[in-house]
């Protein structure tokens, strides 16, 4: 299953994140299928490739909680009409 999630990037104390689409069985720093955005928590900067994110979500990808919050802050679900609910898998 493919998930949009964060990939850590940058130096200590100056961390930024890339929002990537990756298989759930790969590590956080593993090979990404596609890079779909960027998030800098220090400056509250976000850059999203909306067309790629929408395509992933329509195919059934479930974002992590942090990515879901970033997407909600950018009002992506409202623009697209997708309901982002947390699916808990055991």
UniProtKB/TrEMBL annotation:
<dbReference type="GO" id="GO:0009507">
    <property type="term" value="C:chloroplast"/>
</dbReference>
<dbReference type="GO" id="GO:0015935">
    <property type="term" value="C:small ribosomal subunit"/>
</dbReference>
<dbReference type="InterPro" id="IPR000307">
    <property type="entry name" value="Ribosomal_bS16"/>
</dbReference>
<dbReference type="GO" id="GO:0005739">
    <property type="term" value="C:mitochondrion"/>
</dbReference>
<dbReference type="GO" id="GO:0003735">
    <property type="term" value="F:structural constituent of ribosome"/>
</dbReference>
<dbReference type="GO" id="GO:0032543">
    <property type="term" value="P:mitochondrial translation"/>
</dbReference>
<keyword id="KW-0687">Ribonucleoprotein</keyword>
<keyword id="KW-0934">Plastid</keyword>
<comment type="similarity">
    <text>Belongs to the bacterial ribosomal protein bS16 family.</text>
</comment>
<keyword id="KW-0150">Chloroplast</keyword>
<protein>
    <recommendedName>
        <fullName>Small ribosomal subunit protein bS16c</fullName>
    </recommendedName>
</protein>
<dbReference type="InterPro" id="IPR023803">
    <property type="entry name" value="Ribosomal_bS16_dom_sf"/>
</dbReference>
<dbReference type="Pfam" id="PF00886">
    <property type="entry name" value="Ribosomal_S16"/>
</dbReference>
<keyword id="KW-0689">Ribosomal protein</keyword>
